[in-house]
Amino acid sequence: MEINWLPNIAGKKENIPILIQAEYAFRSKMMRVFLEELKGFEDDDLDLVSFDFDTSMKSFQISPKTPEPIYSQILRIKHLLD
Fold this sequence. Notes:
- Helix content is 41%, strand content 17%.
- The chain has helices at 16-37, 43-47, 70-76; strands at 2-6, 50-54, 59-62.
- β2 (50-54) and β3 (59-62) form a beta hairpin.
- It starts with a strand and ends in a 6-residue tail after the last helix.
């Protein structure tokens, strides 16, 4: 799974520990959801999943970089990701 930080926050180093903690919490939650809801996924499929992390809003969205049919499968369970 790839997490893309948007926008780049290189000049705001004081926020980095908080953002790293938010990313870690999101990754943990995502892995639990994937294991429970997407049982047909292979390990290689999870490597293709990409999320965009809006660092100013501290929110995550599935990235258009995620290929089909994985993108559509994740959109189906999007309510579990919030």
